[in-house]
From TrEMBL:
Lineage: Eukaryota, Viridiplantae, Streptophyta, Embryophyta, Tracheophyta
Annotated InterPro entries: TF_GRAS
Alphabetical keyword list: Transcription, Transcription regulation
Span list, region SAW: 83-159
Organism: Anisodus acutangulus
Family: Belongs to the GRAS family.
Protein name: Uncharacterized protein
């Protein structure tokens, strides 16, 4: 709802009128709303590249659930961020610091994440096979969940200062057996970005997004890694040409990506495949070759159909990817602490999907509140129209 601030304001007024005991906000920790297309493209590429790297470690490459999540769910997000503009671009994620300023304008106060919630988060990671690759960082009173050092999600807890006021604003490492240094997908993209900026004519790139933590020292690459670095460089060059409205040259770069990228290959090849498709769609939009835009109502119906069809994939994502469980269980812990003595609990979820997280809350509440059980629990799901 970022592109529709009036609707976002109205939503906050409705939330305030309900008088919630606690508000748990789990959000993507990324900025996909930069006014510069090239910066937005780079930030989005590295963000989704982190997910594809995570999936490579946590899910089988040929898993139907992985293919569904990457191709349909993430693919749609990539397509919208890269190919669309104006009202058509509804995926505009912003970081926790932006949400903090927004919530403060509605007289909301951030609550400290409890020691119990931190304990639960760390306990979950210790129990999962790939939990060691997931990292937790304290950000003020909130929590940032990352994958191999790259932020993925934020978790914060909020309360309204007063329920009586109106809801208006107040203002990977080598083991020594291999001669090459095997890089992760994120390392490959960072290295490709570093090389790209050395030859880029664009002076407005956010260089901090591109610098590799080890710099150019990582030069002894395997043939596969070298090819992947070149593939990402070609994709970035295509994005730069699109930014400069040099569409014919951009198409030539994209044609070089096609033989190397694959939505069934390694994580780099997969993510480049989806971004190349999105860039091609943007070029077609800009040059008038794309079909007329689907109506907002049809687009909304398509999204509902996608979410209802792929519940199994979302459940698999919850079970196999570590940071999704951290997000859910820390939020559950915060809710349980705030309703510790409440006989009636009403949960309102603005993005419920499968609702798998609430089954865990019900189980935890039954275990922790044997002496003072919850008499009545109601779960309401709201769908927010774009």
């Amino acid at each position: 709802m970022i592109p529709r601030p009036d609707c976002l304001d109205n939503l906050m007024k409705v939330v305030r009128s309900i008088g919630p005991t606690v508000i748990v906000v789990g959000e993507v920790e990324a900025n996909h709303n930069s006014p510069s297309f090239l910066n937005r493209f780079i930030e989005t590429l590295f963000f989704y590249g982190t997910f594809f790297d995570c999936f490579e470690d946590c899910m089988e490459r040929g898993s139907p659930c992985r293919t569904t999540i990457e191709g349909v769910y993430f693919g749609e997000g990539i397509r919208n961020i890269v190919a669309a503009e104006g009202e058509d671009r509804f995926t505009r994620n912003v970081k926790l610091e932006v949400w903090r300023a927004f919530f403060a304008s509605f007289s909301m106060m951030e609550e400290e994440l409890s020691e119990s919630a931190w304990y639960q988060a760390n306990l979950i990671l210790k129990q999962l096979a790939q939990g060691s690759s997931c990292d937790l960082q304290k950000d003020g009173k909130g929590l940032i969940i990352g994958w191999k050092g790259t932020p993925i999600h934020s978790q914060s807890i909020w309360k309204f200062l007063s329920r009586n006021t109106e809801g208006d604003r107040v203002g990977d490492t080598s083991n020594g057996d291999n001669v090459y240094q095997k890089l992760t997908a994120m390392q490959i993209m960072k290295l490709a970005g570093e090389r790209f900026i050395q030859f880029s004519s664009n002076k407005f790139i956010n260089i901090n997004n591109l610098l590799h933590p080890y710099g150019s020292a990582l030069l002894d690459l395997s043939p596969e890694d070298n090819q992947d670095v070149e593939l990402v460089q070609i994709l970035l060059a295509a994005a730069e040409k699109v930014s400069d409205q040099q569409y014919d040259r951009a198409r030539k770069f994209l044609s070089q990506c096609q033989p190397l990228a694959s939505n069934t290959g390694n994580p780099v090849q997969r993510v480049v495949s989806y971004f190349a498709q999105a860039l091609g769609e943007r070029i077609d939009r800009e040059t008038g070759k794309l079909m007329p835009r689907i109506s907002a109502q049809t687009d909304e119906l398509n999204n509902i159909c996608i979410e209802s069809r792929f519940h199994v994939s979302f459940v698999a994502l919850h079970q196999e990817v570590p940071f999704t469980q951290v997000v859910h269980f820390t939020g559950i812990q915060a809710i349980l602490e705030c309703v510790a003595t409440k006989p009636k609990v009403h949960l309102i979820d603005f993005l419920i999907r499968t609702g798998v997280q609430w089954a865990s809350l019900i189980q935890a509440a039954a275990a922790e509140r044997k002496d003072t059980p919850i008499e009545h629990m109601k779960i309401t799901s709201y769908r927010i129209s774009r």
